[in-house]
Amino acid sequence: MLEKTHKILYSRERIASEIKRIGQEITRDFQGQEVMLVGVLKGSFLFIADLVREIELPTVIDFVRLASYGSGTQTSGIIEFRKELEMPIRDRNVIIVEDIVDSGYTLECLYNKLLHHQPKSLKICTLIDKTARREVEIEADYVGITMDDGFIIGYGLDHDERYRNLPDIHVVEDA
Ligand code: IMP
Ligand code: MG
Fold this sequence. Notes:
The protein is an alpha/beta fold. The chain has one domain (5-173): Rossmann fold (3-Layer(aba) Sandwich). It is 21% helix and 33% strand. It contains three helices and nine strands, in the order βαβαβββαββββ. It has helices spanning 12-29, 45-52, 105-115, and strands at 6-10, 35-41, 59-68, 79-83, 93-101, 121-130, 142-147, 152-153, 169-172. Helix 2 (45-52) links the parallel strand 2 (35-41) and strand 3 (59-68). The chain starts with 5 loop residues before the first strand and ends with a strand. The model has no long low-confidence stretch (mean pLDDT 93). The protein binds inosinic acid and magnesium ion. Residues 40, 43, 98-99 line the site of magnesium ion.
């Protein structure tokens, strides 16, 4: 396995404080209602675990698993559903929870698919909004950190399935 050179870009403390803020925003926006978080596997597994504990509302959780074809650090734009939702979303306040939005193809595909099932409301929450390579017009309602470009790993984010367990987010220097 080729070890990548990387350095910390966003610390665990920064991540925790942004998640606390998003949790407060969601709590305020949906006061008196229940929310349904839909985590996009695998990258969002740590984010959703921390976020759900910052939301002071009745909450249910489900997951989808999407994969975009292509290798390395580029998205192809062809999205495959590998795991569907298990709970109905009709008339629920659904919040999609993503690790990172890059080209936007993954989210656009999921957003349109979920919209079709008539949720009461449909919002997008992403820990990282990477703006430089956006190809579709899609905007997250809740954003942790906005960055321009670069390939990042850690806190759920992988490079060829590795590094998801790093507690901080690192930038890969030779991506
Ligand atoms: P999009 O469809 O191009 O927006 O790609 C989104 C998906 O690509 C994310 O859910 C990640 O799985 C992956 N991705 C995009 N940028 C990065 C990155 O910098 N590090 C790790 N994964 C990334
Ligand atoms: Mg992802």
